[in-house]
Amino acid sequence: MSDSTPVAAAPEKLSWYRRLYLRVEALSSSPHAVAAMLLVSVVDGSVFPIPPFALLVPMVLAQPQKWVRYALLGTVASLFGGFIGYYLGDLLRQGAISFLEIDMNMRITRFGIDATLGELLGQNFWALALLCSVLPTPFKVVAIGSGMVGVPLDRFFLAAVLGRSVRFFLVSGVMRYFGPTARKWLRV
């Protein structure tokens, strides 16, 4: 006679990233949710591997009437973090330029291009920074990269304000207006 009782499968071991993500998401229902989202938004612009939307989405679903407030606070905190990331990238750029003795004023006149290396990298990268601030690209990559290639601070600021505002308000607005449908979809 064989034993036909099913054997329970061993629980799946979660990666450190998934465990961290779940902890951050759990903060969204705590009394410290807003403070946690602000902190995560600031650190997201510089080094943190978890986007603030892991907190923002459940917060808006729980209190849809506060979607504008959450979006605005998240945008401002994310911009502050972006400046930290930008200056980290700028420090890396300055260190690399001096260590590798790179001349950013070197003129490039090939393939119809007539500009310095610094102009090519810094003057044109801001459009990519704008696009990547809206897309699900980690913002720290955008911020540090902008500092590393020498995007002028005013152009980085413009790209970051536009991009992060669109991203935070879009995510919050979608969760606010499609919340019941989104809640069903998220719990599948």
From TrEMBL:
Protein name as catalogued: Lipoprotein B
Superkingdom of source: Bacteria
Transmembrane segments: 33-55, 67-88, 156-178
Keywords: Lipoprotein, Membrane, Transmembrane, Transmembrane helix
Domain VTT: 59-175
One Gene Ontology cellular component annotation held by this UniProt entry: plasma membrane
Species for this entry: Archangium gephyra
Classification lineage: Bacteria, Pseudomonadati, Myxococcota, Myxococcia, Myxococcales
